[in-house]
Amino acid sequence: MSRPTQHLPLFAAAAAILLLSSAADPDDERCLSSLHDSFSGGLRNWTKAFFAAPCEGFISHLQGVTCNNGRVYKLSLPGLALAGAIPPELSNCTNLQSLDLSSNALSGPIPPDLSALLNLAVLNLSANRLSGAIPRDLASCAYLNVIDLHSNQLTGPIPDELGLLVRLSTFDVSYNRLSGPIPVLLANRSAAPGAAAARTGRFNASSFVGNKDLYGYPLPPMRGHGLSVLAIVGIGLGSGLLSLILSFSAVCLWLRATDRTATMPGEEGKISHLMPDY
Ligand SMILES: *[C@@H]1O[C@H](CO)[C@@H](O)[C@H](O)[C@H]1NC(C)=O
Ligand SMILES: *[C@@H]1O[C@H](CO)[C@@H](O)[C@H](O)[C@H]1NC(C)=O
Ligand SMILES: *[C@@H]1O[C@H](CO)[C@@H](O)[C@H](O)[C@H]1NC(C)=O
Ligand SMILES: *[C@@H]1O[C@H](CO)[C@@H](O)[C@H](O)[C@H]1NC(C)=O
Ligand SMILES: *[C@@H]1O[C@H](CO)[C@@H](O)[C@H](O)[C@H]1NC(C)=O
Where is the signal peptide (predicted)? Predict the structure, then answer.
């Protein structure tokens, strides 16, 4: 996880540290107060006074907040029975590297605005009640190592773009309501050495299970869809065969009936035939 500050000249980094640790960041304040407004549940020390100055250099008195150089860089609030929606303004915590809101009761969509968190490496929103689609914009968070969205109520396809996240080492979207094909670049496929797929294509079935309408490697191909296509073909063939059999037996019955009506009067004829000719 390399941060942009590492690439800055030393004096600029030092100046930035001094500046940021002395003055509270208005973006972080906006981010934290919107979180507070959205989430119901008691977070310790989450008060207006602390939002205005969330960081004292590297430490924060806000529960679940970790700071780095005077900026919020980690939000860790798992298992606190938090309810409500994830506010789009969370994206104002622009230095955030790790977001863990797992095992709460959060509902509503994953805001596409989170794609503005360009330093985000860990996204853990697992075990909530989140719905809607997985935002394809998340692919612009190039440092993402972990995407854990398991056990929610997410719908729609897995965006192909997520397969382009070359640093992804954990990807879990199991137990949602996702549908469609699994992106080839996310599947465990033995690709040509050096190809992007060789580094990114490393997730097995356990990352995708529990989504009824998701299909393709490493899950079975065209699950559900394949069966219904087979069923349609089967029903078509079966009903064709059945109507053939029915019409054939109808013809047989008709033939037998006409044969019988033909032989009925014929019996007299036969008898008369058997009569010796005089
Ligand atoms: C809340 O803030 C006080 C200082 O005002 C601090 O002593 C305490 O540890 C903080 N609580 C948490 C959970 O960080
Ligand atoms: C804060 O977040 C909102 C929602 O994503 C966005 O519209 C706004 O531009 C952000 N503000 C800043 C200063 O980045
Ligand atoms: C995400 O959070 C859950 C629950 O808090 C935890 O069990 C899981 O290991 C986390 N995922 C990752 C990839 O760390
Ligand atoms: C799937 O991969 C994970 C690591 O990503 C591993 O822990 C697990 O055992 C694998 N499961 C199977 C069935 O290969
Ligand atoms: C990925 O697939 C290869 C064979 O294609 C297999 O040897 C390997 O164990 C798989 N990895 C996981 C994590 O399932």
Answer: 1-24
More confident residue, 228 or 75: 75
Sequence spans of domains, the chain: 4-156, 224-278
| Ligand 4 center from residue 191 Cα (angstroms) | 18
Ligand 4 residue neighbourhood (C-beta within 6 Å): 204, 206
Closest C-alpha among 218, 146, 148, 221 to residue 187: 218
Our mutation pick for probing the ligand 1 site, out of 61, 62, 72, 74, counting the most ligand atoms within 8 A of Cβ, is 61
Q: Write down the pTM of the prediction.
A: 0.74
Q: Ligand 2 within 6 A of 160 CB?
A: no
Burial of 240 (0-12, 13-18, 19+ CB in 10 A): exposed
Which residue's CA is the closest to the ligand 1 atom numbered 11?
61
The CA–CA distances, whole Å, from 72 to 61, 122, 148, 190, 251 equal 12, 14, 21, 39, 84
DSSP tag of 206: G
Whole-number Cα distances in Å, 136 to 112, 140, 156, 165, 177: 8, 8, 11, 11, 17
Q: Please say whether the structural domain 4-156 has been given the CATH code 3.40.30.10.
A: no
Q: For tokens 């800055």, name the residue.
A: 8
The CA distance from 278 to 272, in Å, is: 12
Q: Kindly state the tokens that stand for 244.
A: 């053939």
